[in-house]
Prior knowledge:
The chain has a 7-stranded mixed beta sheet, sandwiched between helices. The chain has one domain: 3-Layer(aba) Sandwich (Aminopeptidase). Strand 4, helix 3 and strand 5 (124-130) form a beta-alpha-beta unit. It is globular, with a radius of gyration of 16 Å. The longest helix has 19 residues, at 101-119. With 173 residues, it is α+β, with helices and mostly antiparallel strands. It has helices spanning 22-38, 71-74, 101-119, 134-139, 165-172, and strands spanning 4-7, 43-48, 53-64, 82-92, 124-130, 143-144, 158-164.
Amino acid sequence: MVINIRLLKSTDERRGFSCGEIELDYFFQQFAGQNQFKHYIGSTYIATDEKSIFGFINVSTGDLLRNSLPLKLRKRLPNYPLSILKITRLGVAIPFQNQGIARALLKAILLLAIEQSQKVGCIGVVVDAKDKAKEFYKKLGFIELEVEQGLPKCYRTQTPLFLTLETIKKTLL
């Protein structure tokens, strides 16, 4: 099976996609296209063989406050919002789970972060990981961010994780 990672097209059939997470399926089926083609607030990349969609990853740009980073990282950075690439959603169709699709999608986004760093600036990638996905990201080198505002940690259902551009470059290049 040859997998191609590419930007979602408006003609891609998304209605039958199911990853087993109702919220992710609904987003992909109903909002991924609107967000990309109408509102311009995020882009969705898909893993496909041009017949089927195996998985998707949605990203947008964002910024991160220096104080959210661990002390050893924040020392060398300026004290204003820092550009990042944000992974907002990632889903793999049920028949293709545990076959490396999520890693392939993530690799494409990490390469995009390197490209973004060279064109407009980017210090790394942030993802708000659900509890069951946290270990997947941590094994890849993502570190937990400090949260200064919002719900206390015991009430959050997601954990913000960060991967530095230096780690991305060491891993991929």
